[in-house]
Amino acid sequence: MSLVVKFWGVRGSLPSAPPPQEWSYHIEGILRNFFSSGYREPSQIAKYLQSMETPLVGGYGVATTCVEIQSPQAQLIIDGGSGIRNLSEAIMKGTTGRSKGPFHIFMTHFHWDHVIGLPFFTPHFIPGCEVHYYGVQPELEKLIRGVFAKPYFPVPFEQLKSKVFFHVLEPRKPYQLEDMTITPYQLDHPDPCWGLKVENGGKAYAHCVDTECTRVTREELAEDLPLYQNIDLMYFDAQYTLPELAEKANWGHSAAQVGLDIALRENIKTVLFAHHDPGARVEQVLELKRQTREYYESREKFASQKDQKLSSVKWDFAHEGLEIYL
């Protein structure tokens, strides 16, 4: 094992969950399928639920972007969306990561959905704990201090009990974090947003969420092309369908088909799509998945007709709590 990647928040723009009425309808559908699937006894309920993919039962998640990456010697957190609260609770219980720190948080950018959970990251309030922030933005410290400020949050930055450190990274320059090598590359998003390539032991993860990916070709990507090369797992923004992508130009988010094209060209092994729209329910994400499968199959068919070999790419839509071993 070189890297373990866990997704604590995969929702985009703001935390969002279906209202109780919709959950009731969803659960009713699950119960109906219990009998049509051949089950009859209450003792079979657990087996029935375990036979289904997690999102079909519990949805894709409600929390905004937070990704945890662990290597044999280090732990890195990407972004402080609302998902970081659940990660914080797991850390305090000693069920994940290094419960005593130090803690390392890379910030891609500072839109609300990526900072909303930072004040609820408990290590900030533990005396002697070290929290290290990383980002390309020169104003990194000022921006983090602004998250802990009245009247937006009752505890100002100056009253935090932990020791907080700030590290401004150079664009596209590798930085060594214990046994991880991390390199920031620019994404296509309103207000500068930086993706991250994380490498260890010959494995590589590419964080490409909050990008419209208006630059697609190798020539357009230019100095940011390495973010997509020699990658084992790419986490890619797929908030929209292709028609929505055209309607919402310059909104800073992409579609799964765009990510698939890059993955096929660059021989990326696995792609997970995320930044699910706050209005997207289970059925809508499943529809995105259907459209993506249709597109992938059309690419395979076209390659076959041209007597060409299409590289194999595993792909899926990420859900909260998903854990990937590289």
First and last CA, distance = 6 Å
Provide the CATH superfamily: Ribonuclease Z/Hydroxyacylglutathione hydrolase-like
How large a portion of the residues is in β-strands, by DSSP E?
Answer: 15-25%
Strand line-up in the sheet with most strands: 6-5-4-3-2-1-14
Proper CATH architecture: 4-Layer Sandwich
Mean pLDDT: 93
What is the tally of beta strands?
14
Q: Any idea how many domains?
A: 1
Report the sheet with the most strands, covering strand number, pairing sense and barrel closure: 7 strands, mixed
The Cα radius of gyration reads: 20 Å
Q: State the secondary-structure class.
A: alpha/beta
What's the number of helices? Answer: 10
Q: What is the CATH topology?
A: Metallo-beta-lactamase, Chain A
Q: Shape, please?
A: globular
Using the coordinates above, name the CATH class: Alpha Beta
The ordered H/E elements are EHHHEEHEHEHEEEEEHEHHEHEE
Extract low-pLDDT stretches. none
Helix content: 25-40%
What can be said about this structure in brief?
By secondary structure, the chain is of the alpha/beta class. It has helices at residues 20-36, 45-50, 54-58, 84-93, 112-115, 140-147, 218-221, 242-247, 256-266, 282-305, and strands spanning 4-9, 66-70, 75-78, 103-106, 130-135, 163-168, 175-177, 180-186, 194-200, 203-208, 233-237, 270-274, 314-317, 323-325. The strands form 2 sheets. Strands 6-5-4-3-2-1-14 form a 7-stranded mixed beta sheet. Strands 7-8-9-10-11-12-13 form a 7-stranded mixed beta sheet, covered by helices on one side.
